[in-house]
Amino acid sequence: MMKYLKLLFWPFSLLYGGVTVARNILYDKGTLTSTRFNLPVIAVGNLTVGGTGKTPHVEYLLRLLQEYKVATLSRGYKRQSKGFLLADGQSTAAVLGDEPYQYHRDFPGIAVAVSEDRVAGIQKLQQSVPGIEAVVLDDAMQHRPVQPSLNILVTDYNRPFYRDFVLPAGLLREPRQGAARADAVIVSKCPGQLGVQEQSIINSEIEKYTTPDTPVFFSAFVYGAPVAIGLPVAPTQKVILLTGIANAQPLKEYLRSEGHKVVQHLEYPDHHQYSTQDLQKLKHLLQQPEFSGTTILTTRKDAVKLAGPELDSFTKKLPLFYIPIVVQLLGSQEKFDQLVLQHVRQFQKHITK
Description:
This protein has two domains: 2-68 and 133-222 and 329-348, Rossmann fold (3-Layer(aba) Sandwich); 227-323, 3-Layer(aba) Sandwich (Rossmann fold), CATH 3.40.50. The protein contains eleven helices and 14 strands. The protein has helices at residues 2-28, 54-64, 93-96, 98-106, 118-128, 196-206, 249-257, 276-286, 300-306, 312-315, 333-352; strands at residues 41-45, 70-74, 85-86, 111-114, 134-138, 150-156, 184-188, 216-223, 227-228, 238-243, 261-267, 295-299, 320-323, 325-329. It has a nine-stranded mixed beta sheet with strand order 3-4-2-5-1-6-7-8-14, sandwiched between helices. Helix 6 (196-206) links the parallel strand 7 (184-188) and strand 8. Helix 4 (98-106) packs across helix 9. It starts with a helix and ends with a helix.
């Protein structure tokens, strides 16, 4: 059935792909303006609609660059605000958007801003936060008005871009050839024991679409112990999973591998804004006999919204925990770190001359 649906959508994919190719050609030829800045602008993006794991990789970069005065800029997807905003003590997930608010909560020493216009956003960041030495752009692969100094493409091991198709037949935002703009590619969500032979096969597939000598890295998610944001109780093996992300399957598989029994999965759309009604539903579930002794587990992305000022009084009455996620580069962490750090240092040398 899926095969026939793809065939049905194929003409629309050709039309959509043609429009994105034409747009990229206009930028490549300089017909449409692309702005380059006099500081490192590191873009993290993908060719796919949602779910490749960009956010943990942005966080990896923010930790890696902590010796510099670094800022991060996003468009603030689905935020309830417009224009340029610099995060402060009154910011919420609704105002900033999910991921920027998460960066703001987890990296209090870093300037976090949102702006639909990334060129204006970087300019206003430089004005608002003097001395910025680097900017990390979140989800900016298709934002051609900014010409990043380092373009990092993230693709999901479980659905790599070279096996996907342009919308609506597939999930690609643009044809696979868009990977040629990448300065580095990270294959995310890999098994922790991904073999050298399989890495070589994946690398050869990616090389069909990237420019020569573009490095390919492989990363895996490492899950941490549950962190309480609700009642101060010990987590149990019997859990309700609560998510509002693009793809919760890797987390579900991890929980099962750790011996957790997922008795129910409350799965909301990506970027879901939680309400008091959602938490009342959770409270009602926990009162049912079959859910006795159940813990609620969620993601960090969801947790920053659930623990926000609007819902905090409800959250504190629930046995609610989030599972931390960090990125681990498989066998090539030093090479990737040096690629990024040397890139930033090159700008520092140029500025000090």
